[in-house]
Amino acid sequence: MDLRKRELGETGMEITPLGFGAWAVGGAGWAFSWGSQDDERSIAAIRRALDLGINWIDTAAVYGLGHSEEVVARALEGIPDADRPFVFTKCGLVWDESDHTKEPSEVGRPESIRREIEASLRRLQMERIDLYQMHWPAEDGTPLEDYWGCLLDLQREGKVRAVGLSNHGLIQLEAAERVGHIDSLQPPFSLIKRQAGADVVPWCRQNRTGVIVYSPMQAGLLTGTFSLDRAASLGPGDWRSRDPEFQGDRLARNLRLAEALRPVAARHGQSVAAVAVAWTLAWPGVTGAIVGARSPEQVAGWIGAGQLQLGADDLDEIAAAAKGVGDGPTRP
Q1: Which residue, 117, 171, 196, 271, could crosslink 189 as a Cys pair with Cβ 3.0–4.6 Å?
Q2: What CATH code is assigned to 13-322?
């Protein structure tokens, strides 16, 4: 599939509009798991995505408490260097080895980040990470300038090609940029959670910072295949069972929004999931969208978003459906 590439900020990396998100492939047994997952299915999903033209994978040390990075490494075994995708990962969430069910701590101490990157390099079986991102703002008292300075040092040392921030707001971006250039930002962005379109995405566009958005299908709610019954069947090991967006009136509202995308999808011969993802890609300043999959079949369900161009009428129709749902601007 011909997925036209976009420049990721000033990194020199040209990435496809879709990237494979490896959160769910981390498997079960930790605080933000999606439930049990078969590694062979995960590997098949990653390889299917690469076969269809996707050229980057987004993971994190905390996904599966290291397991996602190991699965990614297995999926890439035997691929020639010239054909290998870019691999992006994250630091700053540290788990308790004595209790995997506890929520990870947001840690920014430079010595911790340096331990984390060595562990990620080992698990990924890489000598250099293509994009290394601070997962969340530190909550251990470490100033932003210190942890961002550490990432910049790792870049200068050649351990990472580019550095970025995830889940950081406008004030934090401005503070980090004064220390050194932010190569990319990873914010949540979907038709349900649209706030990034009002602030951080325009800031990144103005400051030549790439943007790779996550959860464009809002963790499955906007796939067109989710249902009230599916939500009710989510087990306690799936973090979504505790998310307010998957409960009560908000769940019903979110599913109505997904249904409202169906006529747009039908006009383009695409899935509802593809429309939801393509909506995020229509925003000026968004470089790419991270889209997860737990099987090759799920990849097939959204891969069309990489070529789907929504027209003005489509965007107007989607904006009207999104009014009263979530927050933030409804149209690029």
Answers
A1: 196
A2: 3.20.20.100
CB-CB neighbours of 32 under 10 Å:
16
User: Among residues 63, 132, 147, 214, which one is catalytic?
Assistant: 63
pLDDT at residue 237, as a whole number? 87
Report yes or no: 264 and 314 within 8 Å, Cβ to Cβ.
yes
d(CA 315, CA 130): 34
Residue 195 contacts by C-beta under 8 Å, 6 or more apart in sequence? 327, 328
Look up the pTM and report it.
0.95
3-state SS class at 123: helix
C-alpha closest to that of 86 among 9, 13, 181, 1: 13
Phi then psi for residue 33, to 5 deg, are -70, 155
Is residue 63 part of the annotated active site? The answer reads yes
Comparing C-alpha atoms, which of 88, 173, 98 is closest to residue 124? 88
Residue 19 has pLDDT above 80, yes or no: yes
Tens-digit pLDDT profile for residues 187-199:
999 999 999 999 9
Residues composing the chain = 332
